[in-house]
Each structure stands twice: as C-alpha cells, then as structure tokens.
Design goal:
This protein starts with a strand and ends with a helix. It folds into two domains: about 180 residues, Rossmann fold (3-Layer(aba) Sandwich); about 120 residues, Phosphofructokinase domain (Rossmann fold). The protein is built from eleven helices and eleven strands. About 40% of the residues lie in helices and about 20% in strands. It has a seven-stranded mixed β-sheet, with helices on both faces. It binds 6-O-phosphono-beta-D-fructofuranose. 6-O-phosphono-beta-D-fructofuranose binds next to loops.
Length: about 325
C-alpha cells in the first residue's frame, strides 16, 4: 500500500481533527502518502481530494469541527453512485480509506470495503451510540459542555426556585442525557430507552418542592419526543401542579462545538494512528473500538448488527442520587 485516503462524515464531533492529524502523521511515519477527502462521501463522488503532508495537520489538534469538512451524503447509499467514488479512488491511486464518523459513516465504509476499496473506521460521534466501542471521539467534550451548562442553569434555577427542562442531543440514544444528567446532578433524566410517565415525573417534582428543594433540573434527550421539541413538550406538560415555575433550555448544536477535551484528543490520536497500522497491515472491514484501556478491531457486520445498550445500573444510580 502506497497511498491512503482519510475522510470525516456525518455530524462532526470534537476530536475529529486530532484523528485526522494522527492518521496523516502515522501514515507518513510508515512511508505512505495521504490524501484528504473533502466533505465526506460527497468528496469521494466528485473526486474532491487533496494531498496532506505533515505540516498540513499542524495546529489542529486543539480545534473542534473538522478541517476536511463533513456532510451527510444520502446518495452514497446507491451502488451506482459508489461506483463513481471507486473510479475516483483508482484514478487517484488511493488503495484504502480511513473513515472517521458515526453509524451512517460506518454503513458507507462497509459498502466501499465490500466493493473493493479497503476501509477502516474510527468511531466519532457525540452520541456514543456505536456498538463495539466504550467511547466514541467527541462524547467526552460534549458531556463537559452539557455539565457546565447544567451547573450554570442550576444557579439561576435555585435563585428563583424553578424547574428547568434541559434538552440535550441524542436522536435515538439517551447516552448524553444519562451521563450528562448523572454528572450534572439532575433530579430527573428522560431518555428514549426508558418509558416515562409525565404524571409521575410531575409528582416527584412536586414532592421535591414540598421537601424544600430549591430547584429541579430535568434533563431530556431530544429523542424522547419525535413530533417537535422534547423539552417544550415536557415543559408544557409539567407546568401544571408542580409548585415550581418552569423554564426550558435547549442546548442544541453548542454540544457539538468547542475544543476537544484531553480525553478526546487522546483517544483520537490513538485510534487514528492504529487505523493506519491496521490498514497498512492488510486488515480492513473493521472499526477500531476502545474497550477498557485497549483498542480492539471489530468487524463492521458485528458493529452494525448490534445495538449499544444503555447501562441501566447507571440510570438507577442517577435516580438514587437525585433524592
Ligand atoms: O451528531 C449526532 C447528532 O448530534 C444527533 O444527536 C442529532 O440528532 C443530530 O446529530 C443532529 O444533527 P444535524 O443537525 O447535523 O442534523
């Protein structure tokens, strides 16, 4: 193998740049050329490639977002479209690609691998919803943002004795809400994986109010309600009979922004470099997962046919500690 490509795809996450840097620098150390593919799979389709050298990835380890830009490219699901990408790779002499992203990215990588372009995936999404890895790149930074936001909200909530509904990201997964709520000391956490009963939530808030609580923080994952804003839906329902006044805060895309934490830079550096080693040694069709302190390879089919489960013990712990 002489030349590899690297791309970032789907929702960006803090630490993607650190992973790109690690990919390029490790590849150079192994004597490989690297091309950066702009705008994810869209760049594969139109051949938007650029050579990346050591200096091109200088000064990016601390930056959020992705220097290669990212896109969601639904057309990449079509085999005829992917054939264009494969032609572009052959023309450019790209013999393997490292893809950095979440589950949609993995599906594209699996198809490319099957159709003749070896790929290795580095899991990066703030949702941390990918089977086979304990942590994805970006979720730690996201959680720090969520916890800092909850801390700030709590001060004003206490001052005015209010309940705040704080909506966090997670279209299908409650990981951010669970860990953000646990670490932020939320009184209630509502996630898509667990049925909720707003009457029960209202009663618990009312009981807390009666016990003399100064505030209530209810963290809700955006995915608990599909017909609009989850936080506003919950807020509207709780307004009646809870004692406290209710305010709603939707954290939104600020959760995806900002400089990556030390943890995210660390795993991005390790996973990016290991992806190059894996590809250069002839292994492909795998994601690199962080399992405990180790990096393991996991077949795409295993990753994509399994669902990462929420740790219910942590959910129960959060409930116990919220009394
Ligand atoms: O990055 C993952 C994610 O944050 C989901 O939790 C969220 O639903 C989605 O991306 C929103 O992304 P976009 O605004 O890019 O559609």
């Amino acid at each position: 193998m002489k030349k590899i490509g690297v791309l970032t795809s789907g929702g960006d996450s803090p630490g993607m740049n650190a992973a790109i840097r690690a990919t390029v620098r490790k590849a150079k150390a192994l004597g490989l050329d690297v091309v950066g593919i702009n705008s994810g799979y869209e760049g594969c389709l139109v051949g938007d490639f650029r050579e990346l050298d050591l200096k091109d990835v200088g000064g990016i380890i601390e930056e959020g977002g992705t220097m290669l830009r990212s896109k969601r490219a639904p057309e990449f699901k079509e085999k005829e479209e992917r054939a264009k990408a494969i032609r572009n790779f052959h023309q450019e002499g790209v013999e393997g690609v490292i893809v950095i992203g979440g589950d949609g990215t993995l599906r594209g990588a699996k198809a490319l691998n099957r159709e003749g372009i070896p790929t290795v995936c580095v899991p990066a999404t703030i949702d941390n919803d990918i089977y086979g890895t304990d942590m994805t790149i970006g979720v730690d930074t996201c959680l720090n943002t969520v916890v800092e936001s909850i801390d700030r909200i709590r001060t004003t909530a206490s001052a005015l004795e209010r309940t705040f509904i704080v909506e966090v990201m997670g279209r299908d997964s409650g990981y951010i809400a669970l860990m953000g709520g646990l670490s932020g000391g939320a009184e209630q956490i509502l996630i898509p994986e667990v049925d909720y009963d707003l009457e029960k939530v209202a009663k618990e808030i009312y009981d807390g109010y009666k016990r003399g609580k100064q505030h209530m923080i209810v963290v809700v994952a955006e995915g608990i309600y599909k017909e609009g804003s989850a936080a506003h839906h919950v807020g509207q329902n709780l307004k009646k009979q809870i004692g406290f006044e209710v305010r709603v805060t939707v954290l939104g895309h600020m959760q995806r922004g900002g400089n990556p934490s030390a943890f995210d830079r660390g795993i991005a550096s390790r996973l990016g470099a290991e992806a190059v080693t894996t590809l250069s040694e002839g292994e492909s069709g795998v994601m690199l997962g962080l399992q405990g302190h180790n990096i393991e390879t996991v077949d795409y089919s295993e990753v994509l046919s399994n669902e990462k489960k929420i740790d219910m013990e942590l959910y129960e712990l959060a409930q116990t500690l919220a009394q």
